[in-house]
Design a protein that fits this description.
By secondary structure, the protein is α/β, with parallel strands linked by helices. It contains 18 helices and 11 strands. The protein starts with 6 loop residues before the first helix and ends in a 5-residue tail after the last helix.
């Protein structure tokens, strides 16, 4: 059941994590980057932000223990167990921010930070192998590193009214976005645009249960899911998080990103390729959320894999390997929402059409959404969202057996710079509400088709379209408003307007020629 979102989320446009000061902070941090690549600098900056976060959280709990009020009467502020019991990371003295900042101007600051990271990992097994310990290397300018530490150290002073935990979490999120933009194509390996993550989460509405992302990047799906739960009256811990990531440095980002929000997650014992080594083989998730690599042609395939129930995916593209992996891990009443390249909706190459047909015939496709282009930093190609349901008659919603909803959202969104588009909060609400109305979720108005935007379709109609799932084939043309102006009068008016524009064009041409002649470049 989807409940109404908070007014804060439902209104206004833009879906980034911009508080205003993050942008200034980013510009200041970027000035200190010198000649370092964004991909490398990312780990330097984000590691320090995380260190500041756990130190601030430690200091906050330390102050309560020192005060000794209520439950903390008689507590020892230097007892590690007092912190572990409160789900607070223990920070040894040599890793506390105040100590490091006092040494920021020393040439040994790089080694000091490395030692701090080693000490934190040693005393907090959850963070094992998650932290960057490469600050002491010779090519990292120690003067700029010291300035960066001073800059990040000022975050708490910027807005003392906010809890540092929330503030640093938002700074971390904003910086992830900016690094994805700075890295361009490579940024897509660790970051999914915020508006897409929010749309997936708003449509699936994961109030409670197990959430799984087998290609989790920096963990954005999990962070947004927790935000959704809390925004709808739930609490941290209502969902259990399971992830897997093949890239070791990206996996570290995910661990830090979730730890910043106090979210416990099972990422498996180490980084691993999902197709070569599934770290959660027995997991059956209530929700699968994912943004797998588009059209990946360099993937490991085992032909007799138990996951290929709908056909062996082609070696040239992992799209339908990912789809079948998601289905394999769905619980009996589970839902999946994921991003794929548009080709997945219509491709018939190398057996993909047969696999898609088998998935449609199994009545798993709940909804398809065509998205506008230019949403990603990594690629300008348009993408689509797939929503699968294991059981379309789960007793909690309308019986949708044999039905699929198609939504064509290609005209939505606004350009926020020359090459990138974003979905507004209203756009996200429009799409998600239409899906919830169609599913019959409580609290939503009765569903109705909208020409050019959405259409509820039965299985036989999909078969008539050769199992192509492109929403544009089903939603039809947008209704055109009636025009009461008589044709003859309308043509006369348009011709008159055109003649005025021709005359204006001739004037401009004459003026440009005169100017060129004055400059000695006339005919």
């Amino acid at each position: 059941m989807a409940k109404k979102r908070s007014a804060q989320n439902a209104n206004g446009k833009g879906s980034g994590a911009n508080l205003g000061f993050e942008a200034k902070l980013w510009l200041s941090a970027d000035k200190l980057r010198n000649n370092m690549d964004a991909a490398e600098y990312k780990h330097v900056v984000l590691g320090l932000i995380f260190l500041k976060y756990i130190s601030d959280t430690f200091d906050e709990h330390h102050a309560k223990l020192v005060a000794g009020d209520g439950d903390f009467e008689g507590a020892n502020p230097e007892d590690k167990d007092e912190y572990l019991a409160a789900n607070v990371f223990w920070v040894p003295k040599e890793a506390r921010w105040a100590y490091l900042q006092s040494r920021a101007k020393l040439p040994s600051i790089g080694k000091d930070v490395d030692d701090a990271m080693v000490a934190i990992e040693r005393d907090n097994p959850r963070l094992k192998a998650a932290l960057n310990k490469n600050y002491g290397r010779a090519d990292l300018d120690k003067h700029r590193l010291g300035e960066l530490i001073d800059l990040i150290g000022s975050i708490q002073l910027i807005d003392v009214a906010n809890r540092s935990k929330d503030l640093l979490g938002r700074v971390f999120e904003y910086f992830l976005t900016q690094f994805a933009s700075a890295e361009g194509k490579n940024g897509g390996q660790f970051y999914t645009p915020s508006c897409i993550v929010r749309l997936l989460v708003e449509m699936l509405a994961p109030y409670k249960g197990r959430i799984y992302d087998p290609c989790c990047g920096s963990g954005g799906m999990f962070v947004q899911s927790e935000k959704f739960v809390e925004a709808h009256g739930g609490k941290l811990g209502d969902i259990s998080v399971y992830g897997q990531e093949s890239n070791p440095t990206t996996r570290r980002l995910a661990i830090m990103n979730l730890a910043l929000r106090g979210i416990e997650a099972d990422f498996g014992i180490e980084n691993a390729d999902t197709f070569r080594r599934d770290l959660h083989p027995d997991l059956r998730a209530d929700f699968v959320l994912a943004n797998p690599p588009f059209n990946d042609s360099d993937w490991f395939r085992k032909d007799d894999d138990v996951r290929w129930k709908f056909g062996v995916p082609p070696k040239g593209s992992a799209n339908f390997a990912w789809v079948q992996h998601f289905i394999h891990h769905l619980a009996p009443n589970g839902f999946a929402g994921f991003v794929l390249a548009n080709g997945s909706m219509s491709s018939n190459q190398s057996g993909e059409g047969e696999i898609r047909k088998a998935i449609v015939d199994a009545d798993l496709v709940d909804c398809m959404v065509a998205m506008p282009g230019q949403l990603f930093y990594s690629t300008p190609i348009p993408v689509c969202l797939w929503f699968l349901a294991r059981n379309k008659d789960d007793g909690k919603r309308r019986n949708r057996k044999g039905e699929t909803l198609f939504i064509d959202a290609r005209k939505l969104g606004v350009m926020f710079d020359r090459v990138h588009r974003d979905l507004t909060n209203d756009n996200i609400a429009l799409i998600a509400d239409k899906y919830h109305s169609w599913r019959g979720d409580k609290g939503h108005v009765k569903y109705a088709d909208v020409a050019g935007f959405c259409k509820s379709t039965i299985a036989s109609e999909i078969a008539e379209h050769d199992y192509v799932l492109t929403p544009g084939r089903y939603v039809g043309a947008e209704a055109v408003e009636e025009d009461d102006e008589p044709f003859d009068g309308k043509m006369k008016r348009l011709v008159a307007e055109l003649n005025i524009q021709f005359a204006e064009s001739a004037k401009l041409e004459a003026a440009i020629k005169a100017n060129l002649e004055d400059l000695g470049y006339g005919d």
